[in-house]
């Protein structure tokens, strides 16, 4: 006999598990289905983010940063370290431990909030009395009926045509997180968030890293001034970055991956690497969902088609996160998950795409929210700009990390903040203040009038706001 629930969530990534918890908080009976498993077959909820994305990559970035600091920067602080060596298996093991803690944390939250978890693959089986029939396929088979269904099946890495991932030489983000030995030469196709972060990890650990990007401009999605600063900093660190390239034939042998490509000048080039990370985007994961069984509509790119409230074409069926339109970001998925749970409860869930921050966790970190300068110019919007360098910030000097700046763009007449762009230390944390101000449609003057503790990196945000009115105090 089928088990009845008010809400059944398919997928336990950031969008799915958060949707399940919020729905349970609102008094619904909730089931959440997820098939991810650890090496020993135990449940591993958390989706790409927890298992092979955000969390493990940050763990490796932190470890590799420590390694680089010990090798090259401790001496500046009067700390002499000799014979620094790398135990890669320990470093990877720490990453795995961090992932496991997050997996277990989600399972604890399910238990705490009385969410029933099913370990397996969830698929639509058809309509049923009281809602939609969902078949769970795993170690055991289950049949569920949910009045409301929330699809949160996430996304998968996009492979180069004709070059499938083998996770040994040709790596997705998954394989790139568990390379067993530091490669002498590492190639990265795609200079986006994943490519730059994982390229930075292995560069710090000793690999010679070459990044090939098809777009003519580096980090075209970021503010152009920020992108130029980032390119300069990352190149100085040792990343070899080529933009405007056209990838040709890629061949693998027992010992190498051989890449033929045309550079921006039109010259034919060849690159031989030990490992190749392909990070050219992600595709929505709808395989095995049974969309065709119930007539769940997909758009022309293969995403589940939804309206502004994340409703699909089927009654009481919703979809959130990477499997629908919008930025493929964990925090966007979480906000949609909360909003859908609240809409099911008759509330007014809120997701503002204009104030979703973006972060790249390289060194320096890069973050932004809202419009960049090239977008405002294209729109013909009149604006004022103010920036402040971390070189003039006391805390940044004390940290020994003065690369970058904060840049604020505000409406020329109303002073409303239209965009904030940060490259520098702790940019990922500093952007939250900008998101808050913009969510309340605040002005640059509002930031300038708020007392910021001294000495902090956040003072650079205040000073950039002052710079909008051409009245910085420390530069």
From TrEMBL:
E.C. numbers: 1.8.1.4
UniProt-listed NCBIfam families: lipoamide_DH
Annotated GO MF terms: dihydrolipoyl dehydrogenase (NADH) activity; flavin adenine dinucleotide binding
Pyridine nucleotide-disulphide oxidoreductase dimerisation domain residues: 356-465
Name this polypeptide is given: Dihydrolipoyl dehydrogenase
PANTHER family tied to this protein: DIHYDROLIPOYL DEHYDROGENASE (PTHR22912:SF224), DISULFIDE OXIDOREDUCTASE (PTHR22912)
Cell division found in the keyword field: no
Further information: The active site is a redox-active disulfide bond.
GO annotation, biological process: 2-oxoglutarate metabolic process
Cofactor-binding details, from the entry: Binds 1 FAD per subunit.
Superkingdom: Bacteria
Pfam families noted in UniProt: Pyr_redox_2 (PF07992), Pyr_redox_dim (PF02852)
Family designation: Belongs to the class-I pyridine nucleotide-disulfide oxidoreductase family.
Disulfide bonds: 49-54
Catalytic residues (positions): 454 (proton acceptor)
Main location as per UniProt: cytoplasm
Keywords recorded for this protein, A-Z: Cytoplasm, FAD, Flavoprotein, NAD, Nucleotide-binding, Oxidoreductase, Redox-active center
Lineage, highest ranks first: Bacteria, Pseudomonadati, Pseudomonadota, Betaproteobacteria, Burkholderiales
Catalytic reactions of this protein: N(6)-[(R)-dihydrolipoyl]-L-lysyl-[protein] + NAD(+) = N(6)-[(R)-lipoyl]-L-lysyl-[protein] + NADH + H(+)
Cellular location(s): Cytoplasm
One GO cellular component, as annotated: cytoplasm
Organism this protein belongs to: Paracandidimonas soli
Keyword Acetylation part of the UniProt annotation: no
Coiled-coil regions listed in the entry: none
Binding site for NAD(+): 190-197, 213, 281
């Amino acid at each position: 006999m089928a088990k009845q629930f008010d809400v059944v969530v398919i997928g336990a990534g950031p969008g799915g598990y958060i949707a399940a918890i919020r729905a349970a908080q609102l008094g619904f009976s909730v089931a959440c289905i997820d098939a991810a498993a650890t090496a020993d077959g135990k449940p591993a909820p958390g989706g790409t983010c927890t298992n092979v994305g955000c969390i493990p990559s940050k763990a490796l970035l932190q470890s590799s940063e420590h390694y680089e600091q010990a090798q090259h920067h401790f001496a500046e602080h009067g700390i002499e370290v000799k014979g620094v060596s790398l135990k890669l298996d320990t470093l990877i093991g720490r990453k795995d431990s961090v992932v496991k803690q997050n997996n277990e944390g989600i399972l604890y939250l399910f238990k705490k909030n009385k969410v029933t978890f099913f370990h397996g693959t969830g698929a639509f089986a058809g309509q049923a009395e009281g809602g939609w029939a969902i078949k769970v396929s795993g170690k055991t088979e289950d049949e569920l009926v949910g009045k409301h269904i929330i699809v949160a099946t996430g996304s998968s890495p996009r492979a180069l045509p004709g070059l499938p991932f083998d996770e040994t030489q040709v790596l997705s983000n998954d394989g790139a997180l568990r390379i067993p030995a530091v490669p002498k030469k590492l190639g990265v196709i795609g200079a986006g968030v994943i490519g730059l972060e994982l390229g930075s990890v292995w560069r710090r650990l000793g690999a010679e890293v070459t990044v090939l990007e098809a777009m003519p401009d580096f980090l075209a999605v970021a503010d152009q001034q920020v992108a130029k600063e980032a390119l300069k900093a990352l190149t100085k660190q040792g990343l070899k970055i080529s933009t405007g390239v056209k990838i040709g034939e890629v061949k693998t042998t027992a010992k190498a991956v051989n890449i033929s490509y045309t550079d921006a000048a039109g010259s034919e080039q060849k690159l031989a690497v030990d490992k190749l990370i392909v990070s050219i985007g992600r595709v929505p994961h709808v395989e095995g969902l049974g969309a065709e069984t119930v007539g769940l509509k997909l758009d022309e790119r293969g995403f589940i088609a939804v309206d502004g409230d994340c409703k699909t074409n089927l009654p009481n069926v919703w979809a959130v996160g990477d499997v629908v339109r919008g930025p493929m970001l964990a925090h966007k998925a979480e906000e949609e998950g909360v909003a859908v749970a609240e809409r099911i409860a008759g509330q007014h869930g809120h997701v503002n795409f204009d104030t979703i921050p973006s972060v790249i966790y390289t060194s320096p970190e890069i973050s932004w929210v809202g419009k960049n300068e090239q977008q405002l110019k294209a729109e013909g919007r009149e604006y004022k700009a103010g920036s402040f360098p971390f070189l003039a910030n006391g805390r940044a000097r004390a940290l020994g990390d003065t690369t970058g700046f904060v840049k604020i763009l505000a409406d020329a007449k109303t002073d409303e903040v239209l965009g904030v762009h940060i490259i520098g230390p702790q940019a990922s944390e500093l952007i939250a203040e900008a998101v808050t101000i913009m969510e309340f449609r605040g002005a640059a003057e509002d930031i300038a009038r708020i007392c910021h503790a001294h000495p902090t990196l956040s003072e650079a945000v205040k000073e950039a706001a002052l710079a909008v009115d051409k009245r910085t105090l420390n530069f």
